[in-house]
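Pilot study result, target chain (408 residues):
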Amino acid sequence: MNPLKKLKKLSGDLVYSISALAIMSGTLQIIVYPFLTRKMGAEEFGNVLALISVISIMGSTFGTGANFSRILICRQGSQPKGDYNRFLLWISLCFLPLSFFLVHEFDRSNFTLVYCLSFWLLTSVSMLRYYGDVNFRIHVQFKKYFIYYMCITAGYLIGVLTYPLFRSWIMIVLLGEAMCLIYVLAGDTLFDKPWLARSDHAFRNFRSFMVLSLSNLIASLILNADRLLIAEFVGSQEVTVFFAATLIGKVIATLTLPLEGVLMGHFSRYKGKFTKELLFSLSGICLLLGIIATLLSTLASHLIIPIMYPEVYEAAKPFFLIANAGQIFYFISGTMMVIILNFTKEQSQLIINIVYAFSFILLVFPSVIIYRLWGIAIALLAVNLLRFLFVFLMGMYFIWKAPRIHLP
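Predicted structure:
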């Protein structure tokens, strides 16, 4: 394929993937969450946000871990069969008893057997949702990727319409997660029988899955720690305040997620060298995008939050610039890490996130306890800028160590 056609293909893939995530995330953040806030109140919705954070942690840890691991394994020419389905099933069963503890911890007033089991089911389905688009990435089929996320969006909207019937936030999210999996079952081979078949390289695949999942766990815990730490050390209503302060930044930042998927798919086919010039160019582009996105999200917050969350706008307003910047640079550094991962081993991502975790513990935990919302806003921005710097330095290290790195 000539360079012009490659650029056209990459641009088309980006349009499909960014549009998919923008529509889905916009539906969730602009329609579903404000709807639930009005129905439940800021304090009770703060409790729900803590549980939604747990679901996000499990999905982005193990679902994305399986997703990225399968891409890397398939790039090496292996067929993992049902290995990743088995891995996710094990994780789901292990999470079952923990579901009861988490509901009791974050939403004690609504603690029932049905609620706990529903929360567990939603978490399990969400892990499959994060994994379910993997074949579309491997085969660079971003039209199908777009349809996948449109199914999620349609499910969320149907869930909102059915809220008077079920009176359940879980049902809203579950319908979205389930509809995209129905699309995969109908039009893809990912979940074909034998669903739990073991491949000849199951142990190697499991090791890759666990390394990437552990790395994702560290990053995802940190991404969602604002809600959990604020709920634990500040208060439920303040969770909603900080959520509103970071909302636009998160919406804009999630547009980097399809960029990660497109880069993962295209770089997995790239056969060239990983050079200092390439690293500097990509780092400069990411840094510039981060600054622009921060300014846009701050401006948009002043226009949109008074309409969507009028009850917490005045409390959230002082945090717009710093809180949004912290969210955006988390995702920008994540995009850089995906690029580095294509040229190195899975362990490099784990090393980066271990250093990131230590920085987070040293800065964020004492900051939120002592300085409350201002403390966590400033500390999150600091650790995410440090993460970006460390990813860059890790890339420089691999270039220095192996100047002739090629993909297999």
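One observation from the pilot: Residues 346-401 form the longest helix (56 residues). A full batch analysis is planned for the follow-on phase.
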